[in-house]
Specification:
Elements: H1 12-15, H2 18-27, E1 29-36, E2 39-44, H3 52-64
Antiparallel strand pairs: 1-2
Amino acid sequence: MLPVSDGVLDHRQRMGSSIWEYLWLLAHVTVEGAAGDGKSLGIVEHGNRVPTNRIAADLGRLLLE
């Protein structure tokens, strides 16, 4: 289960289809911690670079399932 705040719905018109990329990134957070000021920090794929073509391919596969 992904921890998604319902506050994301407040941004739905501005986010458009980028919501899928946002959710992909949330699903691939490997390290979580405090960023200070009561905020949290999520590190995707252990801080390694993630090529955009990988995200696109993963999302494409999910849409075809």
